[in-house]
């Protein structure tokens, strides 16, 4: 019995410990809270997050300049590229506390729009792209 109890406790700690930051597509289903400043100041973001968001912004800019009339396949390809980079942002993120929560708030709308890019609705993809672009480039309004 003692061995079983020890095993269960170890499993609980391992599963909790492996959940550094639980970021995934289901996060987009959570209620969207607006990003807020830290008492009127920008939140301190870690270097990895700043670099990751800059890469996301770059992918959006390149897409916009190199794909003047995007179709569904173009949006799906962009979705794949952005998702890969977003996964790296999540993996490398070391932020904690309120700054981390505000990053979650910032990313939830990005994830919702990103998910729309892989749907079969060109108008929805166009709208999601423009909304995501605007939101991505607002990052520096909230984080430094």
User: Structural class, please?
Assistant: mainly alpha
- Looking at CATH, which topology would you report? Four Helix Bundle (Hemerythrin (Met), subunit A)
Task: Give the oligomeric state of the chains in this entry, treating copies of one chain as homo and distinct chains as hetero.
Answer: single chain
**CATH architecture classification name:** Up-down Bundle
Care to give the gist of this entry?
The chain has a single domain (about 45-144), classed as Up-down Bundle (Four Helix Bundle (Hemerythrin (Met), subunit A)), CATH 1.20.120. Helices cover about 65% and strands about 0% of the residues.
What this model shows, in words?
The chain is mostly helical and 144 residues long. The protein has a single domain, classed as Up-down Bundle (Four Helix Bundle (Hemerythrin (Met), subunit A)). The chain is built from six helices and no strands. The protein has helices spanning 2-17, 47-66, 72-92, 97-116, 122-136, 139-142. Helix 2 (47-66) packs antiparallel against helix 3. The longest helix has 21 residues, at 72-92. The radius of gyration is 18 Å and the shape is elongated. Residues 1-29 have low confidence and may be disordered.
